[in-house]
Design a protein that fits this description.
The complex is a heterodimer. By secondary structure, chain A is mostly helical. Chain A has 14 helices and two strands. A six-stranded mixed β-sheet of chain B has the order 8-9-10-3-11-12, with helices on both faces. The two termini of chain B are about 35 Å apart. The chains are: A mainly alpha, B alpha/beta. At the A-B interface, α11 and α12 of A face α2, β8 and α3 of B.
């Protein structure tokens, strides 16, 4: 009888079976958290009691009508640039995925150019496009132009900003769309075709809804970057949030309070975008497949 | 010939240097159940995919009833049709895939009514009523609102069959419909296909399920290296094969 022969071992095993398990004591984690809290408290303290920061000024200018106009301008530029960027990005992605070598090449060159040129350079270039093309219109070389208009009257700094940010975003978004479309399984395309769907319907109903699951997080990233990036328009004199706060402190020298006002507004706008992102992700059904995994050993 | 729904004539298909199909002829008549048998790499799946123009032949043509599938004749060559017309022809040919290919962002019911509503222009009510009948006949009426991720492989494939039938196709192509399934689910899918066979559905089936083929199939086609080696009933192929290669194949799989 094996039970008798290994009696002592069995007793030990029985005793062990009564015990419950506990995770490893996390002393390192407590130390790290304490240090982090101390640093955070010191930083907040340094701001709160800092005499350079007059918090009543911050409060006064937060809802100043000129500042609010700046916020609206920032939002307008962001939204319109995004519309241009996402729609042109989708078209460029589809060109890149087309069978036609020519369309592919145009898409590649387009993306190469608009990713390579810094958006600030592009912004100033588009704003000065009148020096390059004094007239805008339709026409062929050697023939008189149809509907020619003076470039200076058409391209305002506001329009220049939308074109520049839109083109820049389009180049980045096209890469996101392209990779997310390619991640949709080939069988999905075939199933749609076998059911008699045409290409447009196949993309609209079957491919893009699946591609968007993958595209939304990076597109949201780009959106947030774009919103903050629009602060560059102060270089060409568009009165966005940053430009407005700068022009106010240029008069009253309350530099830090007004920059803090700008920070608070950017924080608020980005927070709204982040919330919107998580709502869209939930709508697209990311949560359904969520699995909690702990692949990597944690450091803290 | 007049009642042929699909007629493949001299189909040749190459992938790079490999000739996958070599002047293959195959006629499928209304009511036929044709099983394509043979070792892997013989070209069965490629031939099947040519029958709804998912694969484009390098030479030869497929007739869908009496029109050319995917092409029109211009002088001495065949020019591919615009996608819109190919899509119209594909509505008449259903397809069931090895890996189901259900749309993961839709429920089972939505998968089934998508094409009837969006492609055929049926009202949602009409399409839903028909979809429920189909779900009932594949035994999954209670899974109408499940998403594909919530279903077993066998259930997914049965939904995929219902989805193909929802377009009321004149012929249904099955590409190894049970090969991706765990063994426990093979039976339920074969049972649904058996039922379709009993109802007189025209089917072309690529399969390794010889027993099933023997049960349902009026005709079996044995393929080897891109050619049709011999045709007959499954029993005649397994019991009195004309060729050594046919004998060898069935000796291994039976």
């Amino acid at each position: 009888m094996p039970v008798l022969e290994t009696g002592t071992t069995d007793l030990k095993r029985l005793a062990l079976a009564e015990l419950s398990t506990r995770p490893r004591p996390a002393i390192g984690r407590y130390v790290a958290a304490t240090v982090a809290i101390i640093i955070a408290v010191l930083f907040i303290w340094s701001l709160a009691v800092n005499e350079a920061v007059d918090w009543s000024d911050v409060g006064r200018y937060l809802f100043n009508p000129r500042v609010l106009d700046g916020v609206v301008m920032t939002l307008q530029i962001t939204v319109l640039s995004l519309l241009i960027g996402f729609s042109s990005g989708l078209v460029i992605a589809l060109m890149r995925l087309s069978q036609s070598r020519i369309l592919q090449t145009i898409a590649v060159v387009w993306v190469w150019f608009f990713r390579a040129v810094p958006v600030l350079v592009l912004l100033i270039l588009v704003n000065n496009i009148a020096l390059l093309y004094p007239q805008l219109g339709l026409g062929l070389p050697g023939l008189p132009m149809l509907f020619g208009v003076d470039t200076k009257t058409v391209i305002s700094p506001f329009l220049a900003a939308i074109v520049a940010f839109g083109a820049n975003e389009g180049a980045y978004a096209s890469e996101i769309f392209r990779s997310s479309i390619k991640s949709v399984h080939q069988g999905q395309f075939e199933a749609a075709k076998a059911l008699g769907m045409g290409s447009v319907r196949m993309y609209w109903r079957i491919v893009l809804p699946q591609a968007m699951r993958i595209a939304v997080p990076p597109l949201a990233n780009n959106t947030i970057n774009m919103l903050k990036g629009t602060s560059l328009v102060s270089y060409i004199g568009v009165s966005d949030l940053l430009y407005t706060t700068q022009s106010i402190y240029a008069q009253n020298y309350k530099v830090i309070p007004l920059l803090l006002v700008a920070c608070l507004w950017y924080l608020a706008m980005v927070s709204v975008l982040s919330i919107a992102q998580s709502l869209i992700e939930r709508r697209l059904g990311f949560d359904r497949k969520r699995r909690v995994t702990r692949a990597a050993e944690e450091i803290f | 010939m007049s009642d042929a729904i699909l007629d493949a004539v001299g189909i040749t298909k190459r992938f790079g240097k490999d000739t996958v199909l070599d002047h293959v002829n195959l006629t499928v008549r209304r009511g036929d159940i044709v099983c394509l048998l043979g070792p892997s790499g013989a070209g069965k799946t490629t031939l099947l995919r040519c029958l709804n123009h998912l694969e484009k032949p390098d030479a030869g043509a497929v007739f869908l009833e009496n029109e050319l599938l995917g092409y029109r004749r211009v002088g001495n060559s065949l020019v591919e049709l615009p996608p819109r017309l190919i899509a119209q022809q594909r509505q008449r040919v259903g397809m069931v895939f090895q890996s189901f290919n259900l749309f993961p962002h839709m429920t089972a019911l939505e998968n089934i009514i998508e094409a009837p509503v969006k492609v055929k222009g049926l009202s949602k009510k009409e399409a839903t009523d028909h979809a429920r009948e189909l779900l009932d006949s594949v035994g999954l009426l209670n899974k109408a609102d499940s998403t594909p991720q919530q279903l077993s492989g066998g259930q997914q494939q049965r939904i995929a069959i219902a989805r193909a039938l929802a377009m009321r196709p004149e012929v249904v192509l099955f590409d190894e419909p049970t090969s991706a399934l765990d063994p426990e689910f093979v039976g339920e899918v074969l049972a649904v296909m058996q039922k379709l066979a009993d109802e007189g559905t025209t089917m072309v089936i690529v399969t390794h399920e010889i027993g099933f083929a023997r049960e349902v199939s009026a005709r079996a086609v044995f393929m080897e290296r891109g050619r049709i080696l011999e045709e007959g009933t499954v029993a005649s192929l397994t019991d009195e094969p004309q060729f050594e290669r046919t004998r060898d194949f069935f000796a291994k799989v039976l």
